[in-house]
Amino acid sequence: MIEKQLEDAERFIERHTRLKPRFGLVLGSGLSGFGTRILVDADLAFSEIPHFATSHVDGHPGRLLIGTVDDVPVAAMLGRLHAYEGLSFQQVVFPIRTLAVLGVKTLLVTNAAGGLQSKMKPGDFMVINDHLNFTGDNPLRGPNIPLGPRFVDLTDAYDPGLRKVLKESLKAEKVRAHEGVYVGVMGPTYETAAEVKFYAKMGGGTVGMSTVAEVLAARHAGLRVAGLSCITNLGTGLSKEPLTHEDVKAVAAQVAGKFERVVTNFTRKIKSRL
Ligand code: HPA
């Protein structure tokens, strides 16, 4: 039973910290450096938390940090789980549901993603204002679990108020940023050039292999969500370079400082709203 599994994970985490995190973060590929900005109270490997699956992708450490940033109690996932590793979407979102059970009310999901528009440059960011689910799956498939309703409304899945704050944080840190739609795909292949053209025509801004399942589970559980893509490359066909995970990580590493400043600024700004 998932309810019992969530309770196991919650109890385990609460044995390691007395902090009650209100703000959750998912730090995507190469973006885990924000962890250094956290005054850490508990540092837990996914592998030791009951019922958490583990991540084996390079650049995804698979740790949950609970601590404070400027006195804001936070729970940050350094790395995340991906369905392309062979996990079900239920496994992928188990950590998100655990954050909800722990009392997290606001979630920032971040990812490394491909840019679908020629005006974008590697190293730019994009505030996610909506998504297209091209993964072919949904974490809410199956019996409904009582964290939320059977049928979940996705109007403003990415909270307009948080989007505004995120844009202000990007501006304050002088970071080049766009706003648009994240296209979630299953991976692990990168897209074909035809797919990139198609996603762009359909209104996509960035494309990546994560985020969508987490956001669906978070909305189901009533969390307010903000999403931020770090554009590590242009989509297939928009640049001459073949895509490699090494390049994705290298660009994410180059912008890590900017990213950390933006997320720190955002955390400060939302402090009064948590
Ligand atoms: N496509 C899918 N996922 C990605 C990309 C991409 O171009 N870049 C980083 N993650």
Give a structural overview.
- It is a single chain.
- The chain is globular.
- It has helices spanning 2-16, 89-102, 160-172, 193-201, 212-220, 245-254, 256-270, and strands at 23-27, 39-45, 63-69, 72-78, 106-115, 125-134, 177-185, 204-208, 224-234.
- The longest helix is centred in the N-terminal third of the chain and has 15 residues, at 2-16.
- It has a 5-stranded mixed barrel, surrounded by 4 helices.
- The protein has 274 residues and is of the alpha/beta class.
- The mean pLDDT is 95.
- Helices cover 31% and strands 26% of the residues.
- The protein contains 7 helices and 9 strands.
- Helix 1 (2-16) crosses helix 2, helix 2 packs across helix 5 and helix 3 (160-172) packs across helix 7 (256-270).
- It binds hypoxanthine.
- Hypoxanthine is lined by residues 112-114, 190-191, 207-209, 232-233, 235, 243, 248.
Could you outline the blueprint of secondary structure elements for this entry?
Blueprint: H1 2-16, E1 23-27, E2 39-45, E3 63-69, E4 72-78, H2 89-102, E5 106-115, E6 125-134, H3 160-172, E7 177-185, H4 193-201, E8 204-208, H5 212-220, E9 224-234, H6 245-254, H7 256-270
Helix pairs in contact: 1-2, 2-5, 3-7
The structure holds hypoxanthine (HPA).
Hypoxanthine is lined by residues 112-114, 190-191, 207-209, 232-233, 235, 243, 248.
